[in-house]
C-alpha cells in the first residue's frame, strides 16, 4: 500500500532545540509566572513533573488534560483547578519568550509545503503533554500553521503519550489511516521509534537526535531534511 500519511514530531524535529535547555527555560518561566499567586517555585516544578508523569502513564480512561489536573489537584487541592486561567495566561504572555531557547530551520516550511503539494496528508504527532495554545505557538516558531496539518495532538485531544504505542493507534484512528500507509518522522530513538511497534515505518531526523540508550539507529532510515525528502520520494 502506498504512502499517504506523514506523521511529524515537533520538538527537535520540525523545531530544532536542545530539549534540556528548553525544559529549563519553560519551567523557570512558568514558576516565575506563578510565584505571585502563592506557589513555591521548587514545589511547583516538582508537582508539574509529577503531573506530567501522570499523563505519560495515562491508560486512555481520561484525556491527558484530565490526568494532568487530577495529579496537580492531588497535591494542591481541588480548588487549584481554578488556577487554570492563570496557567493559560502564562502561555499567552510569557511562553512566546521561550522562542529564544529554540532554533529555526528554514528548510522546514518548504518541506511541509512540498509534501502537501505532493498530496500527502500531514499530522503533527508531537507528544501531547502541552495544551493546544503551547503547541500552536511552537508550530509558529517552526514557520508552520495549524492548517498545514490534518491533526495535531495536544493534552486536550489525546489520552495516551509517547512512547506508548497506543498513542500512535489513537493518531491512526483519528486520521482513519492504516500503519502501512504512514511514515513517522521524529528525532527520538525511543519515543518516535515506538511507532514501529504498530507497523509504522520510522525516519529519524538527526540534527537534534535524542538517543539516551545509545540505540543503533542504522536500523532506521535517518539523516537530514534532504535525506528525508529523498527517502519519501523513493517510497
Percent of residues in beta strands: 5-15%
| Global structural class | alpha/beta
Strand order of the largest sheet: 3-2-1-4-5-6
What is the residue-averaged pLDDT? Answer: 97
Identify the CATH architecture of the largest domain. 3-Layer(aba) Sandwich
CATH class of the largest domain: Alpha Beta
How many E strands? Answer: 6
The CATH topology of the largest domain is Rossmann fold
What is the overall shape? globular
Order of helices and strands: EHHHHHEHEHEEEH
Structural commentary:
- The chain is of the alpha/beta class.
- It has 2 domains: 5-18 and 102-234, Rossmann fold, CATH 3.40.50.1000; 20-99.
- Helices cover 41% and strands 9% of the residues.
- It is built from 8 helices and 6 strands; from the N terminus they run βαααααβαβαβββα.
- The chain has helices at residues 19-34, 41-56, 64-76, 84-93, 107-117, 132-141, 165-175, 225-234; strands at residues 5-8, 121-124, 151-152, 182-186, 202-205, 222-223.
- A 6-stranded parallel beta sheet has the order 3-2-1-4-5-6, sandwiched between helices.
- Strand 2, helix 6 and strand 3 (151-152) form a beta-alpha-beta unit.
- Helix 1 crosses helix 2 (41-56) and helix 2 (41-56) packs antiparallel against helix 3 (64-76).
- The mean pLDDT is 97.
Give the helices and strands, then pairings.
Elements: E1 5-8, H1 19-34, H2 41-56, H3 64-76, H4 84-93, H5 107-117, E2 121-124, H6 132-141, E3 151-152, H7 165-175, E4 182-186, E5 202-205, E6 222-223, H8 225-234
Parallel strand pairs: 1-2, 1-4, 2-3, 4-5, 5-6
Amino acid at each position: 500500500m502506498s504512502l499517504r500519511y506523514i506523521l511529524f514530531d515537533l520538538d527537535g524535529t520540525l523545531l530544532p532545540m536542545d530539549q534540556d535547555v528548553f525544559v529549563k527555560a519553560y519551567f523557570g518561566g512558568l514558576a516565575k509566572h506563578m510565584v505571585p499567586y502563592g506557589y513555591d517555585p521548587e514545589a511547583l516544578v516538582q508537582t508539574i513533573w509529577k503531573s506530567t508523569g501522570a499523563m505519560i502513564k495515562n491508560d486512555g480512561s481520561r484525556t491527558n488534560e484530565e490526568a494532568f489536573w487530577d495529579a496537580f489537584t492531588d497535591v494542591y487541592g481541588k480548588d487549584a483547578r481554578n488556577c487554570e486561567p492563570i496557567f493559560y495566561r502564562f502561555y499567552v504572555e510569557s511562553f512566546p519568550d521561550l522562542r529564544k531557547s529554540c532554533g529555526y530551520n528554514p528548510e522546514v516550511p518548504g518541506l511541509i509545503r512540498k509534501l502537501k503539494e505532493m498530496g500527502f496528508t500531514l499530522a503533527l504527532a508531537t507528544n501531547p503533554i502541552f495544551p493546544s495554545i503551547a503547541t500552536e505557538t511552537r508550530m509558529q516558531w517552526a514557520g508552520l500553521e495549524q492548517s498545514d496539518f490534518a491533526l495535531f495532538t495536544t493534552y486536550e485531544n489525546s489520552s495516551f503519550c509517547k512512547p506508548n504505542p497506543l498513542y500512535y493507534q489513537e493518531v491512526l484512528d483519528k486520521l482513519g489511516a492504516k500503519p502501512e500507509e504512514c511514515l513517522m518522522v521524529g528525532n527520538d530513538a525511543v519515543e518516535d521509534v515506538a511507532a514501529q511497534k504498530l507497523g509504522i515505518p520510522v525516519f529519524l531526523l538527526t540534527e537534534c537526535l535524542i538517543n539516551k540508550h545509545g540505540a543503533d539507529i542504522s536500523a532506521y532510515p535517518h539523516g537530514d531534511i534532504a535525506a528525508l525528502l529523498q527517502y519519501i520520494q523513493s517510497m
